[in-house]
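Researcher: Quick sanity check before group meeting.
Model: Go ahead. Protein one:
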Amino acid sequence: MYILEAHPTDVWQMQSNVKDNVLFRSPTNEAERFGVANACVRKLGIHFPALVDLINNQVEVAYTGWPDRLYLVGQGGRVLYKSTPGPFGFHPDDLAAAMKKLPRSAQ
């Protein structure tokens, strides 16, 4: 789920964002947010469907995903895995291990 931008250029930047050329201003509508999310998916090489929170940030508020976190949400909306806050708590291998524990029918 792509949610509220953590380091937009019109708020504040981390030096790593500048180095990696991850420079986006805060979207003001859904179309802009979808554009930023699409760039993120492409740059990260994500090969699974990505959902995007609407501009009202409903999902971000519900899951407290800011700054960034990895979640594995199972059937019925149950959270099966939640990472520590990122970017330093962003460990995709831990998420992969949680996914491997899923029953075959859920994969």
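Researcher: Fine. The other one?
Model: Protein two, sequence then structure:
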Amino acid sequence: MPDSQITKHALSSAMKELMAELPMEKIKIGDIVERCNMNRQSFYYHFKDKYDLVNWIYYTDFFMDIQSSLEKPSWELIEKICEFFYENRRFYSNALKVTGQNSFSEYFTEIMHPLLLSHCEGFFENDKDRDFYATFFADAIRVSITRWLLEGAKIPAAEYVKLMKTAATGIIYEVVVDWKNNQARNIY
């Protein structure tokens, strides 16, 4: 492993340890570098801030591993994400509490958007608003997962995703029935 990756992984381990002890807002760059016996310059050579480090952790610990699974059905992909968050709930609950610019919350939505856009293309192929739909669902998934984690993730990931799927498909069913009823009224 190149020195750059060793340094990033050391900073990553330090951040994970600190986030198990403290809220993310209270963690300072000095705390991170002190934990792994480095200096601030080493940190800033690799990351622009602690939020960038948290995003890198997610990208390397999870997102790189699922690259081969991106073609799976959407619900399987969402279940993999939820399982990962469930297994690492302490870290990601802490990360998702922070909102705003450069936060993990925003980064997660940025990652989810293109995934959902590619999964929805068959449904909204020629729809000029497909970007809106992908953003809507990415936001809905992020908010739902955040609430689940912050409330203690009391149910396992598979059960949680099953509930999400039931809720979403129930709404979709109602929309389709309503649409069909409106179409039938317009024909006559």
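Researcher: One line on it for the slide.
Model: The radius of gyration is 20 Å.
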